[in-house]
Structures are given as structure tokens and as C-alpha cells.
Specification:
By secondary structure, this protein is α/β, with parallel strands linked by helices. The chain is built from twelve helices and eleven strands.
Length: about 300
């Protein structure tokens, strides 16, 4: 059996030393006096010492009891320090929310989500970290962020997820590209045979395209230009074709800087998802952010 003394009993002993009365110590600790007396008796047996001399006039400490009280005060102070420190850490964590998002979401959706979210959480500090989908999933799996948003078509079984929005990839070219003047849609084979500039491996956009081609029985060839940002891919799309989120090219399509090229027989839709560790289901502010993301996306799709 462990000889570690009970903290409640140590607290009672300190209160007896301060008040000179077991009854007063019990009342201060919110205990019935018989229960307090039994707790102190168990403490004496556990330590193998007589700590109190009980008389009709009150209770006084023995010499050994005075030494134990000095140690008990130190122990209670240390435990109080732990409690206050933990409370401070919890308050700091509650006042700061860090989320990670893949590039398309971070650039085109998350700013609107966070602006709406801040209306109901004005005192909360929010940090948004950006990477490709694989990087975001890795950060969530390692517990570095409580919540992530990804655009990859699959999520590891080690994580839980929920869809918050829908997105579609589009094939885009510059207005001088031969495909810009096509009168018929591309076939998946035409797309694979074309000169494509792609996002890097690990991006949700790249993975969505690869899986769509796989369902069509096709694969990307080995010789492709790969760039690590949507902006870089758009810049290169004047000379080559690119496959990007319609969210990312909306402005360029509206101004004619890029032209969308239809593709038949290729499903390029995808779900955008919030992800988290199974044991850390979003709660509080994190859950509110997921609800805002879903509501904002629903409002956008219906407008």
C-alpha cells in the first residue's frame, strides 16, 4: 500500500494548527467533524506518527505534528501552484485557436469564414497556418493543430472529418492557347496528352485530378511542370493548360485572362473537409468555426 499521505488530510492538519480546533478545521474544509477526525487518524496511521493531542479544550499539535504541518504547507502550496498554472494554461488555450488549411481553402474560403467567425468571438486570437493537404493532415495527426481544412478526396482512417463545402476543378488555358478556341469538349485522353502545368504532389487539387483520371482508366505522364502554389500555376497557364479550383480562377475567368475548357467524362467535383483527431472532436470555438464554414458555403451555393 502506498504511504503517500492524503492531501485532504494534510489540509485538515494545517487548519487544525491554525485554528486550534478540530471542529473549526472541519467546518472550514466543509466536512463533518467525525469524518475529519477519521481522516486525521488514518493520516497518523499512514505516517506512523502521533500528530495531534485531542483534549476537551481543543486539539494541539505534537512536536512531530508541527514538523509535518510545515511540510504539509509546502505540499499544499505546490499543489495550488499546479492548479493555478493549469488554469492559466487552459485559459490561454481557450483564448487562442490555431487551425491549418490547404492552399485553395486558405486563400479563397477561410478568410470569409474567419471574418464571420470573429463577429461572435471578438476576444479570441485565431491563427491560420497554410500548407498543402498532405501537410495539413500531417499536422492534425501529430496533434499540432486541433482542426484542419483540406481539399484532398480522401482522409486517413486515423482522422475524423466532415464535409463543409463543395468545389469543382476546371481546366483553364490562356486566350491564345489552341484549346481556348475548341468548339467541342476535351476528352480525358486529350487532357492527359496535353501540356499540363500541375500543383505539386501532396496537394488536394493534384490528388483530385489523379483520382478522377484513374476512374477513367488514365494516368498522368511523368513529364509535367509542377509548381507549389496556385498563383504560380495560374501564371504558367497562359502557355500551358492547368487544372485548378474554380474558386481560384474565378476572377481570371471573369476578366478573360483565362478561358475554361470543358472536359467530358471526367468528374472533377470534390468535397472540402474539416478534419480532427477522433479523440479531439471540435468543441467550443473550433466547433463554431466548422458550423460557420458549412453555413457560409451553403449560403454561397444557394445564392
Amino acid at each position: 500500500m502506498s504511504t503517500r499521505p492524503d492531501l485532504t488530510a494534510l489540509d485538515l492538519l494545517v487548519r487544525v494548527a491554525e485554528s486550534g480546533s478540530l471542529g473549526a478545521a472541519a467546518r472550514a474544509a466543509g466536512m463533518a467533524q467525525p469524518n475529519a477526525s477519521r481522516a486525521l487518524s488514518r493520516l497518523e496511521r499512514r505516517l506512523g506518527l502521533t500528530l495531534l493531542v485531542r483534549t476537551p479544550a481543543g486539539s494541539r499539535l505534537t512536536t512531530e505534528g508541527e514538523v509535518v504541518v510545515a511540510w504539509a504547507r509546502e505540499a499544499i502550496t505546490a499543489v495550488d501552484r499546479i492548479s493555478m498554472g493549469a488554469r492559466s494554461l487552459a485559459e490561454q488555450r481557450a483564448a487562442h485557436l490555431t487551425v491549418a488549411a490547404s492552399l485553395t481553402i486558405a486563400e479563397h474560403l477561410a478568410p470569409r469564414w474567419l471574418a464571420r467567425f470573429r463577429r461572435s468571438h471578438p476576444d479570441l486570437n485565431v491563427s491560420l497556418e497554410v500548407g498543402n493537404s498532405v501537410e495539413v493532415l500531417d499536422r492534425v495527426e501529430r496533434g499540432e493543430v486541433a482542426l484542419g481544412f483540406v481539399e484532398s478526396p480522401t482522409v486517413p482512417r486515423s482522422l475524423s472529418s466532415t464535409a463543409v463545402a463543395r468545389d469543382t476543378l476546371v481546366v483553364v488555358v490562356g486566350p491564345e492557347h489552341p484549346w481556348a478556341r475548341r468548339r467541342t469538349p476535351l476528352s480525358p485522353g486529350d487532357l492527359v496528352a496535353g501540356d499540363l502545368v500541375l500543383r505539386e504532389a501532396g496537394s488536394g487539387t493534384r490528388e483530385t485530378l489523379v483520382r478522377a483520371l484513374d476512374r477513367a482508366g488514365l494516368a498522368l505522364g511523368p513529364s509535367r511542370l509542377e509548381l507549389a502554389s496556385t498563383a504560380a500555376v495560374k501564371a504558367a497557364a497562359g502557355e500551358s493548360a492547368a487544372v485548378l479550383s474554380e474558386l481560384a480562377v474565378k476572377a481570371e475567368l471573369a476578366t478573360g485572362l483565362l478561358v475554361a475548357v470543358p472536359v467530358d467524362g471526367l468528374d472533377l467535383t470534390r468535397a472540402l473537409r474539416a478534419v480532427w483527431l477522433p479523440g479531439r472532436r471540435p468543441a467550443g470555438a473550433a466547433a463554431d468555426l466548422v458550423r460557420v464554414a458549412r453555413a457560409q458555403s451553403s449560403a454561397s451555393s444557394s445564392s
